[in-house]
Amino acid sequence: MTLNGNSDNPGQLTFAVPKGRILDEALPVMARAGVEPEAEFHDPKSRALAFATNRADMRLIRVRAFDVATFVAHGAAQVGIVGSDVIEEFDYADLYAPVDLGIGLCRLSVARLASDTEEAGAVSHLRVATKYPSLTRRHFEAAGVQAECVKLNGAMELAPSLGLARQIVDLVSTGKTLKENGLVETDVIIEISARLIVNRTALKTDRRVAALVDAFRRDVATRSAA
Description:
The protein is α/β, with parallel strands linked by helices. It folds into two domains: 13-104 and 193-225, 3-Layer(aba) Sandwich (D-Maltodextrin-Binding Protein, domain 2); 106-192, D-Maltodextrin-Binding Protein, domain 2 (3-Layer(aba) Sandwich), CATH 3.40.190.10. The protein is built from eight helices and eleven strands. It has helices spanning 23-32, 65-73, 84-90, 133-142, 158-161, 176-180, 200-205, 207-225; strands at 13-18, 50-52, 58-63, 79-83, 95-100, 106-113, 125-130, 146-151, 167-172, 183-192, 194-199. It is elongated and about 60 Å long.
């Protein structure tokens, strides 16, 4: 049975999971930690955002990756899974990431057109297309460059060839998409993996949250020992 946003059970835990690249890898990890969604969760035709689980005291919500961190940081969800890129971008004080799940591996990188050969140190101001303005600005500031960030949520690779921005900062896995669009990776800002995140207050006040953290830690330890 799909649940709506207003649960009749005030003691119910809400677990936020991200749409997109991490989810397929996260679901088996969650199952081993004792959390499995109802059948409708797997229905591609479903437009529901909240779902029941095998636990009567827990529901899942499926939202955009950036929103997972926001829901958990503000206590609307107590637990979530999200990439470390999102955690670093927002740096929420009320967010705690106690478990590196070892999945969703990729990197946040700087890229530019292969034909652009000017040295990065030759400029003091640079326009960069990204959906990570905070991480981007910090990275370029460390190199003495002021980054003017153009916020894009997709099609990042088109920005340099269309003159929107000279460089981009985006997630890179194999680098194939960059190459196909005439771009080269010039720098890695951070290596990324998916993390279990929890709301700090919930961790202190709800034993079920601490138990979930322990369950995910055990799964990581088991996989590491295999």
